[in-house]
Amino acid sequence: MVLQEDQPKRIWVHDINKKRNEFGEFHTIFHDLTEDDKKFFIYFCMSYAKFCELLLAIEPRIEKKNTNFREAITPRERLAVTLRVGFDLANHDGDETWRIANGLGFLDGVAWTLAWNVFLGQGDTFRVIALTYRMGETTVRRIVYETCEVIWEVLSPIVMPPPTKEIWGHISSRIWDKWQYPNALGAMDGKNVVFEKPGGSGSTFFNYKKEFSIVLLALVDADYKFIVVDVGAHGRTSDGAVFFRSRLGKMLTEGTLDIPVPKSLPNEPEIVLPHVIVADEAFPLQENIMRPYPGPQVVNNEPNKIYNYRHSRFRRVSENAFGILSKKFRIYQ
């Protein structure tokens, strides 16, 4: 008879986590935070009123049932965990980051960006949250992934709907009113989001700044709001190439972006021009993409100088939008 060695007993719930309802961070601090708007905002990067509004929208989708073995984590605590977790790309494991970006269907493209941009502002890691909230690390990961998916499904039609001719028209009018650039659909730019090199990726993500990154491409309106975003392209890829491979670029090329028909200029009714995306020199000049005049064409040419001034004045809105984003959400710094 072969004697089998005793297998280590697997812990179903760690003793520390059994005291979650007594000593977990949510149960010890959340109620007190709700009575102080300033501290609540510092902790969650949103007001308590907005927290409740968001919870009301997603609660039915993230609620779990109690079982005979354990009490389910409430939707309120699930949302709190999600809001406290941010993926610090500068210090986070590259393989994990890339898996999140590409391996999960619900966190692709705009969804992934929305989850990071709008909600995950604090930047604590899964491990830290697991310890302070007295949950398993796997549980924290699952909560964050599931909650982000629901947030995206519920809010994306509201906060970032696919632009229609009517929406494009409003965007263009606002750009003219604020920045005096006619027939513009938005300012476009790309930003390298730095993270640790994923294993086995070679130089795929190695950019011109000698960093490993993925590219966030964005189209921004007159008020620094993101209209369309595309995220996940390799850091070594140029902004122009990222654009043409993006859904936005493909739709613009195929004529399916639903942009308005050419329109006369505000002060020159006899001149009819197409609507354009305003970009920098990294993007090619096309019917619906405008870039500044190159240096030689500006020398001793006052009209071109004036155009470049107007062009740069509005185009910098996209750079400033990234600056605002980076200041509020540290994963982009």
Automatic annotation (TrEMBL):
Residues 188-332 form the DDE Tnp4 domain. It is found in: Nucleus. Its cofactor is a divalent metal cation. Keywords: Hydrolase, Metal-binding, Nuclease, Nucleus. It holds the Pfam family DDE_Tnp_4. Belongs to the HARBI1 family. This is DDE Tnp4 domain-containing protein.
